[in-house]
Specification:
The chain is mostly helical. The chain has 2 helices and no strands.
């Protein structure tokens, strides 16, 4: 493992990393960033999240 991965490794959960990789020719980094930024939550962040319906079953470890 690379040194940076070893520093982030957890024996129970692994590396816990999420990466998004775009590979292509003639793509605009700025356009990709703007498009992804437009997907971020805005006003939803200040709402009481307990009011939202959680469609997933309860999860306990």
């Amino acid at each position: 493992m690379a040194l940076s991965l070893i520093n982030r490794w957890n024996d129970t959960y692994g590396d816990r990393m999420t990466e998004l990789v775009m590979i292509g020719m003639g793509i605009s980094q700025k356009q990709i960033e703007q498009t992804l930024d437009a997907c971020l939550l805005t006003e939803e962040m200040v709402q009481d999240w307990s009011e939202f319906i959680d469609p997933l079953p309860s999860f306990h470890i």
